[in-house]
Design a protein that fits this description.
alpha+beta; 3 helices
Length: 242
């Protein structure tokens, strides 16, 4: 009997080399440690951000309610600083023929006044009182002197001259206008902390005043008979005639 052709033999499957990739689903196993560390870092960062935002919101709400705290400053040091700034204004006015007006209503003086109200929403109702209460231990310091023998035309020229000179020196001129027959120059020195005024007055006079912002004075500050901090003698501008 004649046999037919033999069927071809099946080819052997070659072995998979070690380390070669295999097809099909990957066997379950532990995830890489780097991915786990990334998730932990992100979670910690989000938690810290939420904490900061929460604290910030709490502090802001508390500031709105209690108000901002006044800075601490020695009234005597503030008074000396105001006198020095007033000297600069006097030099900018350039009125060598003017004299100090020593009338009782305009005599040179320093003042430390308790004229600083409470701040914050918790004291909002106090602002509607005719005499709102002032915060104890907080004062505003001011200084003033007046020149005489300053005709109106000379006073107007002096105010314009002072505005230009102080601006050149870096002062912020916040007002230079005429109202109610009075011309007022208001200026803030470099660095702030005070406002100075030069104002032409009726009767050929010109007043210069300086006022500092409200500040809490230290506990060991000497107190005068009026219950306010004592201030050193006023230092008038050099060269001012009396």
């Amino acid at each position: 009997m004649t046999r037919g052709p033999l069927a071809p033999s099946a080819q052997p499957v070659p072995p998979v080399p070690p380390g070669a990739a295999t097809s099909g689903p990957r066997a379950a196993g532990p995830r890489p440690a780097g991915s786990r560390r990334t998730r932990v870092t992100v979670a910690v960062g989000l938690t810290a951000l939420a904490t900061v935002l929460s604290l910030g919101a709490g502090l802001t709400a508390r500031q709105w309610w209690d108000g901002d705290a006044y800075p601490v400053a020695d009234p005597a040091v503030t008074a000396d600083r105001l006198d020095a700034r007033a000297q600069e204004v006097y030099a900018a006015l350039a009125l060598p023929d003017a004299e100090l007006d020593d009338q009782p209503t305009s005599s040179p003086r320093h003042q430390a006044e308790t004229d600083c109200p409470y701040t914050g929403l918790s004291h909002l109702a106090d602002q509607f009182n005719d005499a709102p209460p002032n915060m104890p231990g907080v004062v505003t310091v001011s200084s003033r002197w007046t020149l005489k023998n300053v005709p109106d035309s000379a006073g107007q020229s002096a105010l314009r001259r002072a505005a230009a000179e102080l601006r050149r020196q870096g002062w912020d001129i916040t007002e230079n206008a005429t109202a109610d027959q009075r011309t007022t120059l208001r200026a803030v020195p470099p660095g702030g902390g005070a406002t100075l005024y030069a104002r032409a007055l009726p009767g050929d006079r010109l007043a210069v005043s300086a006022a500092a912002k409200c500040a809490r004075y230290p506990e060991n500050t000497p107190i005068g008979a009026d219950g306010n901090p004592e201030l050193p003698p006023q230092r008038l501008p050099d060269g001012l005639r009396r």
